[in-house]
Amino acid sequence: MKTTHPIGVFDSGYGGLTVFRSIAALLPQYDFIYLGDNARAPYGNRSFETVHQYTLQCVEWFFEMGCPLVIIACNTASAKALRTIQQLNLPEIAPQNRVLGVIRPTAEVIGSYTRTNAVGVLGTKGTVSSQSYEIEIGKFFPEIRVYSHACPMWVPIVEYGEYQGKGADYFVQKYLDELMNKAPEIDTILLACTHYPLLIEKIEKYLPPHITIVAQGNIVAHSLTDYLQRHSEMETKISQGGTRRFFTTDDIADFNQHATIFFGEPINAEFAHL
Ligand code: DGL
User: Minimal CA–CA distance to 188: which of 103, 106, 111, 134?
Assistant: First the structure.
């Protein structure tokens, strides 16, 4: 079998497929491997230590699979594990490889959406408690006030296929009201969790029309394109066979069934032995 050097795309489960979908559409020429750590998902309520340990193990698996570049498409893992992996682990385990996340590329562009300089960030408990968005947005746009709010019920609602159901309305409205009560001047809301784009119709329903809702898929895909243009030493390492392989650490049939909703086309996953 031909040796490939794909770009790895990682998430705690299916959610990262909403990001991978945009990446694969924009960069169809490259080989990709997607891994969902479904056996240990969700990561959203787990401690820093646990998220770091799980994410690092998955990053090492990508390296063994020949990936020189890994995108952490999961907000929680980007918030709680990425910095330690980049600064402490990578220099020891694979100094020539790179691991990138979703928070910095989003923080870099969020200023172009807001006019009131008040941005709402919706994410898991882990992402919100890490304050990663406040820190990263502050580096690029110190004038922006960031109001983060955790939406712990949204991931289970999406995972159980209830995102179009009536039950979802209650929790969508509840969290949006709680956020908007913190700062009515918010004019931009970032969906800082892989699952939330599936709730976009309901989110739009409970927000005034002047509020811009920002999903991350296209932002991350354009940022990756830009990264590859600026880093030819990395770009030339990545193989260009246009293949996509999907792996899960849990049941394949279950992954295939759920993943199709997130990716928008049928998937034939393989089992990943970590
Ligand atoms: N992928 C996670 C995120 O973007 C949501 C699911 C989880 O909690 O593992 O934060």
Answer: 111
